[in-house]
Every structure is written in structure tokens, then in C-alpha cells.
Amino acid sequence: MPIELENVSFSYGINTPFEKKALNEVNLKINEGELWLFIGHTGSGKSTLLNTLNGLIIPNGKVTVDTLQTNNKNTNMKELRKKVGIIFQYPESQFFLPTIAEEILYAPKNFDVDLKKEEIKFYMDIVGLPYDYLNRSPFSLSGGEMRKVAIISVLSYNPKYIIFDEPTVGLDYSTRKSVFNTVKKLNNMGKTIILSTHWISEFLELKPLVAIMKNSNLIFKGKFDDFIKLDQNFLSEAGIIFDEKLELYKKALLKNDKLKDKIAML
Ligand SMILES: Nc1ncnc2c1ncn2[C@@H]1O[C@H](COP(=O)(O)OP(=O)(O)OP(=O)(O)O)[C@@H](O)[C@H]1O
């Protein structure tokens, strides 16, 4: 079953001098097992859109997760939020417990999930965090390690859909690579992943589906190679600039050169 957005619109600060439209008539269907990359300039509406998917923001229009509609007062929001886990930008700012083990156990407890020791180890393996970190304070970790703990605390209640809002923001190259590997593993496990990023080429190997936001509008949704072939002006007006790797990939793709698959793996 999919996540479906139908005519989704949202404004902040309605009827105030600060009223700001963040989503305008967005329509999108996200099928199970897909990997979606949301891109677009700063302030284009990506985070707002992601926050509508688990009911943190209730927009006008309709957001349906499997059979659960976020704006239906009969919807069990706990059930919906258990299905759709969000890893926020700078999630580490939300830590408040003394040990990593307690941080990891907090969300599953909330969702009535009895998390087994082996499951914690399994999730630690996925993100690449050593087991002997469990008794450490989350505040003693590096930024990248904190990000990994935040990812585990969402994985720990086994959501079907996992949303990453700019998962690699503020991280160094090797930690970005490790977050990328986590995304890859989760998607290979069949999880549906929806992520916003400014680092498109890091995800090239996975050939995600791409959604482009511009000034609160969803201006493109489609396959990765169709995105790559989009007109350069159209892209740069949406704040999207290709780096060297994407340019190389585009050249090979347009020439139908087999090299493109090698470039994607770089
Ligand atoms: N809490 C808020 N109150 C008022 N306006 C907001 C709020 N959050 C976001 N906005 C505005 O809504 C618009 C969309 O913001 P949003 O955070 O969704 O964009 P974004 O594409 O995720 O940006 P970024 O890439 O910088 O994270 C922007 O103009 C932003 O200033």
C-alpha cells in the first residue's frame, strides 16, 4: 500500500503578517519499497512536505498512509506515527537521557514495542555503531555518532516508511558515506525511504526516484535518469546544480555509454 498526497497545501502563520505558503497543491504517490530523494532550494518546502507524512503537519488536501488518513479524526495517530519514522535535521539536539541504551529504548517503549537485545545489536550493526557504546552518554559522542544513535532510535520500532530530513547535513565525508550505506541497507531490506538532501550525487548509485520542490510546488517527480536529462535552466532555477560526477553521468547517459553504470558506482 502506498503513501498518497492529494492536493496537499499548507501555509504557516495563516492570517498573520507572517503568513507563508509552504506547500501548494502537491500530488504524489510513494509506493512500498521505493527510495525518493526530495531536492530543491532552501525554503522550497521539502521539510514541510516530509512533516505532513506522519501527521506532524496536517495540511489541506489529503495525506494517506496505507489506509490511514492524517486529517481524519478517527485515525489512530500512534499507529500512523509507528509506520512513518522521521529522522530530523540535527536529531541529536533531541537527546535527553543519560545513556545511549536509554535513548534507543525510549521510542519503542512509547510504541509498546518490546525491543530485544539482539534487535538493538542488529540496528547498531546496520548503522555501524560499536556495541560497547550502549552505556555511554549520547553527549560524549561525535556529531556523526550521535546521528547514528538518532537513526537507531527510529529503526528500533521498525517503521515501514523511514524519512530522513537532510541526513548528511553537517557531517564529514566518511560519516556521510556511512549514512549513505545505512540508507542503502535499509532500502535493500525493503524499507520505503524518503529523504531530502542537497547532496544528490552521493545517492546516484541507488538511482532513487526524484522529487523537485520549488517555491512550495512539486515541479518534477520521476525516475532518476529522467531527472538527469532535465533542462539545465529548469534545474538551476530550482537551485539544483550538478557536480562533476553528475555531469559525467549525464554525458554518458546521453551518449548511451555503458560507462554510466561505472560512474554511478564511483
Ligand atoms: N515554523 C515555521 N513558521 C513559519 N514559516 C516557516 C516555518 N517553517 C518553515 N517555514 C517557511 O516555509 C517555507 C518552506 O520551508 P521548509 O523548511 O519546508 O523548506 P526546505 O525546503 O525544507 O528548506 P531547507 O532546505 O532549508 O531545509 C520557507 O519559506 C520557510 O521559511
From TrEMBL:
InterPro entries the UniProt entry points to: AAA+_ATPase, ABC_transporter-like_ATP-bd, ABC_transporter-like_CS, ABC_transpr_CbiO/EcfA_su, ECF_ABC_transporter_ATP-bd, P-loop_NTPase
Keywords of this entry: ATP-binding, Cell membrane, Membrane, Nucleotide-binding, Translocase, Transport
Protein's membrane topology: Peripheral membrane protein
Protein name from the UniProt record: Energy-coupling factor transporter ATP-binding protein EcfA2
Molecular function via GO: ATP binding; ATP hydrolysis activity; ATPase-coupled transmembrane transporter activity
Annotated organism of origin: Tepiditoga spiralis
Domain ABC transporter, residue spans: 3-240
Entry's localization field: Cell membrane
Main location: membrane
